[in-house]
């Protein structure tokens, strides 16, 4: 067994994680070392808090067994083993940051740096999207939606928020529409569309399977299908008759950044206004009716009363937010 353990320890690559080493060596370990291995697979960060004696006590083994365990994994002892665990934790944290936050933002950045970077990302995305929009295509889409029997909007996850926002706006100007974020309900609606209907799929990546399936079903039923996506070569674009392409600057927040939402909102807002233009009379009358319906539930604005300058109290030095009493005679 000892010879086998030594041979195993000589085959490790320096980049191999501690967990991978443990998983690979576990079948060759003695019963005592296997207890340490199984404990560390469940609690991989324990060596960062435990001394060698504490780890031995926790696993019902001895310090000598822990040392042999470390050597079997290619480490000279417990101290370099702990360093390797710390390095793995650091790599995992950095990878998670890069994947979920993005390489343009660092943990030590000041709030002003973060704000400036965000403004740059969002502004660039909006400018790029505006420069590449096909306005003739958008005008055609607006005409078809304005005159259609029903308008379906598909979006899952973050895109569901965009779909719901578009539905709320269009319904107020008289468009018969509904948004769907759940596959079965969306497929049911898509199946009863026809040539007098329009269906729009919203997906930044264009690879959301549920959204693609709903759009495909609507297209098979005869509806005019449109994809709103950042990826014109995506499966969602391939499933659509028409594609509206946005441009979200990809080096910033990942994987679902707000810059992508802002360019989607830009297109949604533009589409809403173009549709409203198609039937100005209907849009204005329905907007007035809906505004009247909710007006009793809104508080009326109140004018702020400011007394004449002669009646205003001077602000005390000791209590700058509290007016001081006026002790002047008369």
From TrEMBL:
Native species: Auraticoccus cholistanensis
Name this protein carries in UniProt: SIS domain-containing protein
Record Gene3D superfamilies: Glucose-6-phosphate isomerase like protein, domain 1 (3.40.50.10490), Winged helix-like DNA-binding domain superfamily/Winged helix DNA-binding domain (1.10.10.10)
UniProt xrefs under Pfam families: HTH_6, SIS
Superkingdom field: Bacteria
Domain HTH rpiR-type: 16-92
Spans annotated as Disordered: 298-330
A single MF term (Gene Ontology): carbohydrate derivative binding
GO biological process terms, semicolon-separated: carbohydrate derivative metabolic process
SIS domain boundaries: 141-281
Compositional bias (Basic and acidic residues): 308-330
Keywords for the protein's UniProt record, in alphabetical order: DNA-binding, Transcription, Transcription regulation
Record-linked InterPro entries: Homeodomain-like_sf (IPR009057), HTH_RpiR (IPR000281), RpiR-like (IPR047640), RpiR-like_SIS (IPR035472), SIS_dom (IPR001347), SIS_dom_sf (IPR046348), WH-like_DNA-bd_sf (IPR036388)
CDD domains the record matches: SIS_RpiR (cd05013)
